Amino acid sequence: MGFTMGLNFVLLLAMVATNILSLYHLSSTIQSKAPTPPPVPDHLLRQLHTIRATINHLTRLQPTTTTTTTSNPSKPTVPSDLLLYTHISPIASSCRHHPDLLHRFMNYTPFSLCPHDTDLAESLILRGCHPLPRRRCFSRTPPKPPTSSSLLPTDPFSSPLPDNSIIWTKYNCKSFTCLARFNSDLGFDMKVEKPKFLSYKSDLDLPIPQFQQIAKSAKSVIRLGLDIGGGTGTFAAQMKKLLNATVITTTMNLGAPYNEAAGLRGLVPLHAPLQQRLPVFDGVLDLVRCGHAVNRWIPVTAMEFLFYDLDRVLRGGGYLWLDRFFCKGIDLDKIYAPLIGKLGYKKVKWAVANKTNSSGVKNGEVYLTALLQKPVSSK
């Protein structure tokens, strides 16, 4: 009630100020012999602009009294911390398309423990509401602190991952051992993860030692990298172990705690969606690898923006590694190969093979593994 009365007062003040200003100009124009009025002071114009901007901003967030009390009495009001945050920082435009989720996310008790709502945050991020608004609450910590026999592992392939660091609540499995036993391909079984990216079994494989030789032959140094859709971070772990390279992994918790696992392995998980600009500065990375997260399910236009964003963060001479990109065979020749070709990168490796699982056979899909080197700009 107090907010609505305050908003009405601001609206009334703005109307009165605007009308007085309009009458002032009107009276000066109809008196032809009157002297030219002095210009409107800059500070008054700034105040009017501020009032109008504030009204526009608040009316977008606060539902009108008629709508709240008559049309939809059960519609919740905007959380107070969301209103406060909008005064100090902008909010992603996509957030406005999902007000119910956003209000639930910001409806918490300030200065207390944050709610168990990582799934809610992930739902907003996947809908393009990113970055999320900041909150004034304390992140949760594991109920049992590490003991001398269960310190955080220094080896990213230690098995199993320590369960005393678990803080998730939404998954059926309550331990990493359960996750590894449930499906060894999810990335939680360190015995399965340890040999990955090390051996050559088909043309689609590019072992890290072979990639190291390619880079060495081209006199390229591999120090910094980005692994897009890297799950629990096994590629980053192998690059750290073999090349002493720092690789950041973008990953989402789609059905399993991938971010938590990557962090426990001593790796950096970047909780960021593919549809947003990468939070990396221009031309600083030596390598970008795209795993299964980058495939034909991404709309072509969105993928084109993604590829050019990857080009933005790669330095001259850096590598773009498409690891088992899959699409329909006919689309590879007509759509994706020309799309990749627009980058003008050197083809170091280009291998295509049929996708032999049931979905691949049904849809006529193929895999592509490509290693592409960005040219050095001539300007």
Describe this structure in words.
The structure is a single chain. With 379 residues, this protein is an alpha/beta fold. Among the domains are: 77-140, no CATH class; 192-373, Rossmann fold (3-Layer(aba) Sandwich), CATH 3.40.50.150. The chain is 40% helix and 14% strand. The chain is built from 14 helices and 7 strands. The chain has helices at 2-30, 42-61, 65-71, 80-86, 99-106, 118-126, 176-182, 190-193, 208-217, 234-243, 258-264, 300-313, 329-341, 358-363; strands at 224-228, 246-250, 268-270, 285-290, 314-328, 346-354, 365-373. Strands 3-2-1-4-5-7-6 form a 7-stranded mixed sheet. β2, α11 and β3 form a beta-alpha-beta unit. α1 (2-30) packs antiparallel against α2 and α5 (99-106) packs antiparallel against α6. The longest helix has 29 residues, at 2-30. It is globular, with a radius of gyration of 28 Å. It starts with a helix and ends in a 6-residue tail after the last strand.
